[in-house]
């Protein structure tokens, strides 16, 4: 069926590589659905199954997680033409690892998994663009991890020590969990945590043993 749905607004998104008449038909038949979210509205919660992708038409979406101090931390921002769920939709672990929220009033186009598969299978140009988006996202995540992991581990340690120092009213912190559990809470390996503790000890910031961490330089506390 050929319809008169305007497709001009989709030109700068992945949908822009599709033939205009086909795109118009998909919109007319509700195979591509428009949806809007209010400011601060939760779009997906951690652990929810990813059954669709969302293409942002207007607005801003953020990925958030609860930090070790209990505060809500923003991990990443997505804006116009970006896609939410592209790296999860066909994954064997297809659940959102963090909460996704609309930072401001946001409009998206949702594409269900079966429709996305049909588009990838039938239109090589669309498939190549989708693969490029996933690849670019993987490179971006890898680069961020490479550039920030050392700082992130140290900042996580300092945040934990600051909170525990206040709770225990002491600069000699008794660990409330094993180093393995502490590493899991920080989202790093135990080896990486131990390496960073050794660096901080070598810099004269802390002393530590299996059950405690002594803060030597109080200026590091938040």
TrEMBL record:
Keywords: DNA-binding, Kinase, Transcription, Transcription regulation, Transferase
GO-annotated molecular function: DNA binding; DNA-binding transcription factor activity; kinase activity
Domain HTH crp-type: start-end pairs: 151-219
Domain annotation Cyclic nucleotide-binding: ranges: 30-119
Record-linked CDD domains: CAP_ED
Domain of life: Bacteria
One Pfam family of this chain: cNMP_binding
Name of the protein in question: cAMP-binding domain of CRP or a regulatory subunit of cAMP-dependent protein kinases
UniProt-listed Gene3D superfamilies: Jelly Rolls
Organism placement in taxonomy: Bacteria, Bacillati, Bacillota, Tissierellia, Dethiosulfatibacter
InterPro entries referenced in this protein's UniProt entry, alphabetically: cNMP-bd_dom, cNMP-bd_dom_sf, HTH_CRP, RmlC-like_jellyroll, Tscrpt_reg_HTH_GntR, WH_DNA-bd_sf
